[in-house]
Structures are given as C-alpha cells and as structure tokens.
Amino acid sequence: MSEVQRILVVEDDIDTSEMLSAYFEAQGYEVLAAAWGEDALRVAQKTLPDLVVLDIRLPDIDGYEVCRRLRSHRRTESVPIIFLTERRERINRLTGLELGAVDYITKPFDIQELRLRVRNALRRASLGTLVNPITGLPTDPLIDEHLMTLLRQKDWALLSLGIHGLRDFSNSYGFVASDDVLRAVALMMKNVAKELGEVDPFIGHLGEADFIIISAPAKVEALRERISARLGQAIDYFYPLKDRDQTRRPKISLGVGVVTPQDGPFGSPLDIKVAALQVQSPQ
Questions:
Q1: Residues 6+ away with beta carbon under 8 Å from 146
Q2: Which DSSP letter does residue 176 get?
Q3: Which residues contact 203 (CB under 8 A, 6 or more apart)?
Q4: Which of 110, 106, 52, 42 lies closest to 78, judged by CA?
Q5: Which helix (H) or strand (E) holds 105?
Q6: Which of 14, 44, 119, 170 is deepest in the core (most CB within 10 A)?
Q7: Domains in the chain, CATH or no CATH each
C-alpha cells in the first residue's frame, strides 16, 4: 500500500463529490474523483486506489455493476469498497455486501462516521496484505520475519517451488482457473508437509506463483520428492476436460529446489529469496 493512501470517490452529485474530496484531502489522503461508473473503472485500472467510496445511483452503469467489475479484475479485486447511497432498504444493503462491499453508508450521512469507517476499512485492508488473498499464505512481510530467524541459525533448509507457465494458462482459461491452481498447490503443500510430520510448517507465497516451505533439513528431500510427485500427478486435472489430452495446450510445469546455509553466505532475507528462485529446476 502506498505511503499516502488513495481514495477514489465515485459520486455524480458535484457538491457531494467536491465536499468529500476536500474533506479527505484535508485528512491527508490523496483523492481521485469520478462522476460516471465507466470513468471510475478506467481510473481504478490506471491508478489503483486503496479504497473506493461508491455511490449506487450513477448516470450510466450503477454502483453494483461497478463493484462487480472491480471484483472481476485481479488488479482491483481486493480494493475495499464502501457504498454511499440514498437507498435504505435491507435488500439494497445485502446486495452490496454480497458483491463484496466492506461497508454501506446511507445519505444523508455523518461525515465523522464516514471518516471512521474509511479509516477502519483501510486498517483492515493493510492487515490483509500480510497474506496472499488467493491462497491465504503469508507474503513478504511475514516471510522476511521467518528468513531473518534462519539467518541466525546454522542448520536449516528451505524448499522452493514455482509454477511456470501460469500466466499463459491464465490468458487461455481465465484468472479464476489460475487462482484455482494456486489454491490447489498451496493445499497440497500443506498436506504433504503435515504427512511428513512437519509441526506447524511455515509455507509462504513468494511472488505471483512461487512458494517456499521452511523445513527440517532431515526432511527436505522427502518433502521435495513427495510434493513433486503429487503435483506432477495433478497437473492434467488443472485443465478443462476437453484439453487434458491436447499437446498444444498452455504448458504448466513445476520448478523445485532446495536452499541450505551451504548455498550462501546470506546476509539478508532478500539473498535467501533470490537463491530460492534460482534453484528451481524443472520437474
């Protein structure tokens, strides 16, 4: 998340839009504004906001459709959305929440209440960056904490696994299918680690399609062999049934490798992560 948090205000009433923009800028936020739903979508894709305050009634597409389309794009799928609307019926509130909005404010509203709701939504979103939204696995901040611990130890092992070709797979079958692959791989890694007796194994999601497991040195080779075998058997099932026997389908392959202190010296978590990506060999 950027140092100065960015709010996109989507409101067709000029007075309300200008008031909200001036108010949130005075609170230290950067504010973007759009009066039309289509404009809001273009702005969000070009300049990613940290939060969207979204009116439901807009001149072109309504706020519900804006929300649906924001949620359908990977770049904006996790951006918190607060609906701002004159509609008070329970069904309207439920519709917004079902679409993934984090809050719902009715007009006329208390500006102080809106400020607190915006602040709370941004805080929740910042905590969410500690885990990958697709797999639920820890990302860089938590990974770095664990790697700093390794740097103070003499005996450790780290298994690195990458899914190669996932972007081409996503281009052919859609991001929902590629997200399913990531979730399946994360689950397999957890299951294999537990089968081998790893107690509370640390598994991190490193980058777009790379993972690490911190392992006991005595178990890392068995971990590599079993995960490679399990994922190798599962790859065909990631494809639609009609393409499972096709030779021209976008190819997914696995890269697996092991990093130990002997591969160093390592002076920082970044050094270990670079080594983890470099040791991945095709399976």
A1: 138, 202, 204, 214
A2: H
A3: 137, 138, 186, 189, 190, 193, 211, 212, 213
A4: 52
A5: strand 103-106
A6: 44
A7: 6-128 (3.40.50.2300), 140-282 (3.30.70.270)
Long-range contacts of 149-156 (CB under 8 A, 24+ apart): 150/214, 150/272, 151/266, 151/267, 151/268, 151/269, 151/272, 153/261, 154/261, 155/217, 155/261, 156/214, 156/217, 156/260, 156/261
Q: Are 43 and 32 in contact (CB under 8 A)?
A: yes
Q: How many angstroms separate the CA atoms of 54 and 104, rounded? A: 9
* Beta partners for residue 210, in sequence order: 162, 206
In angstroms, the CA 50 to CA 65 distance is 19
Instruction: Tell me the C-alpha distance between 255 and 165, whole Å.
Output: 11
Contact between 102 and 81 (Cβ < 8 Å): yes
**pLDDT (tens digit, 9 = 90+) per residue, 79-109?**
999 998 876 665 666 677 677 787 888 888 8
Give residue for tokens 């099932």: 237
> What's the pLDDT at 98?
72
Give the contacts of 220 (CB within 8 A, at least 6 positions apart): 157, 158, 159, 258, 260
Distance CA 138, CA 261 (A): 22
Q: What span, in angstroms and rounded, lies between the C-alpha atoms of 253 and 33? A: 43
Q: State the Cα torsion 276-279-230-216 to the nearest 10°.
A: -60
Amino acid 167: pLDDT: 80
